[in-house]
């Protein structure tokens, strides 16, 4: 027998918690969260550094503190969180199969589903770095969990490949714990992390950031003994003669995040080739009716504050769908990536919706200084913003009145470049 749920949320990280709370506050009494980990909170459990909540709560919090705000909110609303539960399958008609040690196999029939599974890190296998398979190669997130939650130090002499935010933060964290971080090596000519993390985690500790470089060889058989690093050309190919050797016992990989979309695929949800997450409208509803997506499973965010805002939209709209009160749009406005822009979300905007404003977010495709970005409908400019600097490490987000999109079949988000670094 399947259990009937109005809104079923998959994942109890910051996205799932915010979505579930918003669904309950929108009037939905039958809300449940399924979480495969032992406790709610998601990746924030291991992010003990400050810097969270500046936008959402107007104060600086650590990751666990930020997560606890939403855990408390969910508990106050008496929303059940079923941990240690792995979702195995989701069908397009919203049937969910899950399994847990305590309850065995469970079947759910949901009126609406919110996908909030988060993302995972790219591994060494995706990079194809030559060498054997010695101990001492970790993803930055795995190292973060080992240090912050397990009390285990991966190594003493560290090289970090990639300048994503987790890698930058771990450069500082490993230094605090007594390790020597020799360098942060980045393939691209710019950092993929937030500027504040480059300053606070590398510059403040005199850790060099080698842009347009990569690791070309991992040395050692039983344990990492060192890595060879080389500069790369404009096509990201190693330049002969630029090699330098770093003697180290640990290599941390911070080379990108991938939305955890296996369940999305099983539910027949179309994915964006740019964000690797589902394509959604402004209600965060995917192209499969009744299935919504939010957080890092939709697109990788740089700030958890925006995850919460986006997920609250998904939760409210899922509650409306479950209640049968979702406005039926007569038309959609397509949102397209223009010059210098990657991964606009949402990809479609309804001409009818409960919320008066619509949020659009995107990442710059390169580093641009003294540039302007705009939202354009043909020759008509709906919005224009000036920026001292645009960088792929920091997403842009803006809210516009829904009325501005009515009667417009397509808009383009683009950078008007004035000076490229």
Topology:
Layout: E1 3-10, H1 14-25, E2 31-34, E3 50-52, E4 61-62, H2 63-76, E5 81-82, E6 86-90, E7 95-100, E8 104-115, E9 119-121, H3 124-127, E10 137-139, H4 140-148, E11 157-161, H5 165-176, E12 180-185, H6 195-202, E13 209-210, E14 213-219, E15 226-231, E16 244-247, E17 250-253, E18 257-259, H7 262-266, E19 291-293, H8 304-323, E20 332-337, E21 341-345, E22 348-350, E23 357-364, E24 368-377, E25 380-390, E26 396-401, E27 410-416, E28 419-420
Parallel strand pairs: 1-2, 1-8, 2-5, 8-19, 10-17, 11-12, 11-17, 12-13, 20-27
Antiparallel strand pairs: 3-4, 6-7, 7-8, 9-18, 14-15, 15-16, 20-22, 21-23, 23-26, 24-25, 24-27, 24-28
Helix pairs in contact: 1-2, 1-8, 4-5, 5-6
Protein traits:
single chain, 421 residues, FAD/NAD(P)-binding domain, 3 domains
How would you characterize the overall build of this protein?
- By secondary structure, the chain is an alpha/beta fold.
- The chain has three domains: 1-120 and 256-326, FAD/NAD(P)-binding domain, CATH 3.50.50.60; 123-255, FAD/NAD(P)-binding domain; 329-421, Immunoglobulin-like (Sandwich).
- It has eight helices and 28 strands.
- The protein has helices at residues 14-25, 63-76, 124-127, 140-148, 165-176, 195-202, 262-266, 304-323; strands at residues 3-10, 31-34, 50-52, 61-62, 81-82, 86-90, 95-100, 104-115, 119-121, 137-139, 157-161, 180-185, 209-210, 213-219, 226-231, 244-247, 250-253, 257-259, 291-293, 332-337, 341-345, 348-350, 357-364, 368-377, 380-390, 396-401, 410-416, 419-420.
- Strands 1, 2, 5, 6, 7, 8 and 19 form a seven-stranded mixed sheet that branches. Strands 20, 22, 24, 25, 27 and 28 form a six-stranded mixed sheet that branches. Strands 10-17-11-12-13 form a five-stranded parallel sheet.
- Helix 1 (14-25) packs across helix 8 and helix 4 runs parallel beside helix 5.
- The termini are far apart.
């Amino acid at each position: 027998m399947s259990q009937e749920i109005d809104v079923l949320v998959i994942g109890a990280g910051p996205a799932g918690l915010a979505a579930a709370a918003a669904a309950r506050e929108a009037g939905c009494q039958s809300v449940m969260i399924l979480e495969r980990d032992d406790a709610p909170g998601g990746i924030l459990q291991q992010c003990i550094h400050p810097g969270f909540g500046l936008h959402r709560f107007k104060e600086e919090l650590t990751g666990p503190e930020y997560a606890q705000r939403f855990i408390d909110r969910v508990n106050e609303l008496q929303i059940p969180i079923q941990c240690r539960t792995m979702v195995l399958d989701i069908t397009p008609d919203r049937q969910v199969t899950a399994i847990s040690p305590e309850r065995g196999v469970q079947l759910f029939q949901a009126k609406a589903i919110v996908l909030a599974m988060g993302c995972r890190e790219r591994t060494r296998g995706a990079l194809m770095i030559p060498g054997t398979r010695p101990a001492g190669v970790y993803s930055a997130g795995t190292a973060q969990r080992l240090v912050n939650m397990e009390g285990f130090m991966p190594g003493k002499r560290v090289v970090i490949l990639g300048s994503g935010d987790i890698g930058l933060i771990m450069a500082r964290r490993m230094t605090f714990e007594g390790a020597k971080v020799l360098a942060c090596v980045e393939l691209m000519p710019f950092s993929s992390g937030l500027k504040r993390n480059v300053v606070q985690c590398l510059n403040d500790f005199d850790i060099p950031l080698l842009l347009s470089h990569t690791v070309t060889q991992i040395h050692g058989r039983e344990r990492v003994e060192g890595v060879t690093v080389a500069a790369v050309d404009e096509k990201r190919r190693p330049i002969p003669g630029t090699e330098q050797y770093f003697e180290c016992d640990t290599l941390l990989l911070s080379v990108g995040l991938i939305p955890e979309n296996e369940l999305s695929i099983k539910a027949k949800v179309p994915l964006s080739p740019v964000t690797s997450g589902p394509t959604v409208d402004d209600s965060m509803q995917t192209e499969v009716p009744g299935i919504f997506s939010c957080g890092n499973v939709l697109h990788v965010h740089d700030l958890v504050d925006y995850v919460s805002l986006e997920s609250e939209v998904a939760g409210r709209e899922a509650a409306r769908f479950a209640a049968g009160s979702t406005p039926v749009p007569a038309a959609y406005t397509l949102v397209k990536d223009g010059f210098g822009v990657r991964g606009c979300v949402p990809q479609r905007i309804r001409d009818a919706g409960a919320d008066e404003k619509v949020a659009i977010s995107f990442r710059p495709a390169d580093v641009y200084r003294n540039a302007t970005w705009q939202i354009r409908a043909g020759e008509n400019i709906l919005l224009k913003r000036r920026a001292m600097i645009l960088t792929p490490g920091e997403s842009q987000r803006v809210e516009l009145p829904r009325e501005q999109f009515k009667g417009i079949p397509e808009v383009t988000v683009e950078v008007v470049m004035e000076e490229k670094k």
